[in-house]
Amino acid sequence: MSEIDFNITIVGLGLIGGSFAMALKELNIKNLWAVDIDTNVIKTAEDMRIIDKGYTDPETPLQNSDIVIICLYPNLTLEFIKENMDSFKSGAIITDTAGIKERLIKEVDLVLRKDIEFIGGHPMAGREYKGFEFASKEIFKGANYIITPTNKNSRGNIEKIELLIRRIGFKRIIKITPQKHDEIIAYTSQLPHIMATALINSDEECDTNSFVGGSFKDATRVARINCDLWTELLINNGENVLAQIESFEKRLGDIKRAIIDNERDALKALFEKGSLKREELI
Amino acid sequence: MSEIDFNITIVGLGLIGGSFAMALKELNIKNLWAVDIDTNVIKTAEDMRIIDKGYTDPETPLQNSDIVIICLYPNLTLEFIKENMDSFKSGAIITDTAGIKERLIKEVDLVLRKDIEFIGGHPMAGREYKGFEFASKEIFKGANYIITPTNKNSRGNIEKIELLIRRIGFKRIIKITPQKHDEIIAYTSQLPHIMATALINSDEECDTNSFVGGSFKDATRVARINCDLWTELLINNGENVLAQIESFEKRLGDIKRAIIDNERDALKALFEKGSLKREELI
After folding, report:
1. Residue of A189, A274, A282 with shortest CB distance to B209
2. What digits encode the pLDDT tens for the residues B190-199?
C-alpha cells in the first residue's frame, strides 16, 4: 500500500483512538503521533509501535499535523479544540469521533480559526468495554462511518478524510448534516442502549441468570456500557432521544393493545412487520 | 455411553423436535421414533438416521413409548394430547417443550389418564429460524431447561426426564411451578421479543441500514421470529406479559425523566445499575 503523505495526530488513546492507531499504522502514514494524559498508555503504544511517538503536551504534534483525529468524549472534544486553537498547523483538518454532532459543530464553529477546517465524524463501531486495552483495528472492519460536512468544508479535505476512513476498513461512508445525524443516531444507537438498560433494570425478584436464553442476553448486551460517555451523549442529545423514546412507546403500545384486546391477527401483523424489517437488515 | 432402556417418541420434527432427535440419537436410546404430518421431513430424518422410524399416524409409536416428547406449539400440544389420550402406553411419561405452562398443564390435567404422567418442560434454547432444516443439537449445549413438575408427578419420573435433559447437553435444570414459570418467562423471554419488535418497528423515515452498528443489530435480533408461535405464546400468557411491559415502562420512564430533568447523576446511576446487572449475567 502506498504511503499516505500526511502527519496525523490522534488525540486520546482509548478504545476508539487506540483502534485508529492500530489501523492507521498499517497504512504507512508519514508520521503518526498521539496525545494522551496517561503516560503508561503512551509508553505501551510506543512499545507496540502503533504510534511513532506519544505526547502529553499536544503543542508539538499539533503544530506539525495535517490531520488531527480527536477521540475524546464530546465535551472534552470541544474543550480540547478550544484550548489548543493556537497550536494547530495552518491548513490542518480536525476531525472527531463523538457520537453527537449538531451542538458540538456549532460550538467548534464559534472558535475555529479561518485557516483550518473541522469535519465531524462518527465511526459506527465500538465495544462494551472502554480503554486502550480493548482497542482493536478489527472493530472497524465492515462497519459504517458517518461524516457530517458543512458548507465550510472543501471538497478536497472531505475526500482526504474519506480516503483514510476507507483505508482503515470501514465499508460505507454516509454524509449527512449534523442535525440529521443526531436525529437518526438517537434511534439507531441511543435508543437500543436505553432499551437494554430499561430491560435489565426491570427484573424484580427473580434469579434472572437461571431463566435467560439467547434473546435476553442479546437484547441486553449494550446495557454493559461506558456510563460516563453515554450519560453525556444522551443529555446532549436529549430532545432527539425523547422523541425517539416516544415513538418507541407508541409501537410498544400497539403490541400492548393487541394483547389486551386479544387481537391475534393484529399482534401477528406487528411481528410480521418487525420480522421482515429485521430480515432486511444487513 | 450406556444404552438408555426406553422407547422414546418425539412429536413434531421442527426446530426443537429435530434438535431433540439429533441429540437423543447419540445416547443409544432403545428405540427413537418420531411423529410428524410432513412425510418429507420423516423421510429426511430416517435417511439421516437420527430416528429409527417416523410415523404420520401416532398410534403405533405412542402405544410402545415410555417417554413422549411433544415439540409442537402450545395449542397443538394440548390438542395432540387430547386426541391421542387412548393411545399412550400405560406408565408413560409425556413431556412438552411449549414456552408457556400454567394453562396448558391445567387443561392437560383435565383429560389425563390416571396411569400416565405429564411433566411440563421448556428448553431455553431456540433460533430465529423455524423448521427441521435449522435443527441442531448444538443449540442445547450449555443452555438452561425449565421443568414444572406438580404434586401429581413421581420423583422417579422427574428423575428420568432430568437424566435425559442433562445427557443431551443442557447445563442447568430449574424446577419451578407452572405459574412461576409463566411469570418469569414473560420477563426473560417474552419481553425481549416484544422490545426487539417495538424497536425495529419504530423506524420512521430513515434508511436504517446505513446507520446501524452492533447495538441496534443485537437489540433487534429476536424481532426475526416465528410469528405464529410468538403470537400464540403472548396471547396465552397475556396477563403476565402485560405486567412485565408495565414494569419495563416504569424503568423506561426513569430514564426519560432523568433526560427531561437534565439529571446527569440520576441517569448515570441508572446506567451503572444496568451495566452491573449485565456484567453479572453469565
Report:
1. A282
2. 999 999 999 9
Per-residue pLDDT band for A3 (boundaries 50, 70, 90) equals low
* Cβ–Cβ < 8 Å for B148, B181: yes
Alpha-carbon torsion (A131, A133, A134, A138), positive or negative: positive
**How distant is the Cα of A138 from the closest Cα of chain B, in angstroms?**
13
Shortest Cα–Cα distance, A253 to chain B (Å): 9
Considering the domain delimited by B181-280, tell me its CATH architecture: Orthogonal Bundle (1.10)
On whether the A4-176 domain is CATH 3.40.50.300, my answer is no
Whether the predicted pLDDT of B97 surpasses 60: yes
- What cell was used for A133? 486495552
> Per-residue pLDDT tens for A113-156?
999 999 999 998 877 678 898 899 999 999 999 999 999 999 99
CA distance B69 to B11: 6
Kindly report the number of other CB atoms within 10 A of residue B86's CB atom: 9
For residue A1, what pLDDT band results from cuts at 50, 70 and 90? Answer: very low
ipTM: 0.86
Helices A238-260, A178-185: axis angle to 10 degrees equals: 30
Domain ranges of chain B: 4-175, 181-280
Q: Do residue B187 and residue A202 have CB atoms under 8 angstroms apart?
A: yes
Cβ contacts of A208 on chain B, cutoff 8 Å: 187-188, 277, 281
Cβ-defined contact of A144 to B211 (cutoff 8 Å): yes
Where does A90-190 have alpha helices with state H? 102-111, 155-167, 178-185
Q: Which residues of chain A lie closer than 8 angstroms to B136, CB-CB?
A: none
H or E, element range at B77 = helix B74-83
Domain covering B4-175 assigned CATH 3.40.50.720 in the classification: yes
Question: Reading across the β-sheet that carries A67-70, which strands appear in turn?
Answer: A53-55, A29-35, A4-11, A67-70, A93-96, A117-123, A144-148, A172-175
Cell of B268: 448515570
By CA distance, what is B211's nearest residue in A?
A188
Q: What share of chain A is helix, strand, coil (3-state, %, to 5)?
A: 55, 15, 30
Mean pLDDT in residue range B88-102: 97
Check pLDDT > 50 for residue B1: no
Q: Which residues of A touch B260 (CB under 8 A)?
A: 238, 242
Q: Find chain A residues with C-beta within 8 A of B252's C-beta.
A: 194-195, 198, 245, 249
Contacting residues of A for B143, CB less than 8 Å apart: 213
Q: Check CB contact under 8 Å for A278 and B143.
A: no
pLDDT interval class at B3 (50, 70, 90): low
- Residue at grid coordinates 476507507: A166
Contact B234 A259 (CB under 8 A): yes
Question: For residue A133, with 0-12 CB atoms within 10 Å meaning exposed, 13-18 middle and 19 or more buried, which class applies?
Answer: exposed
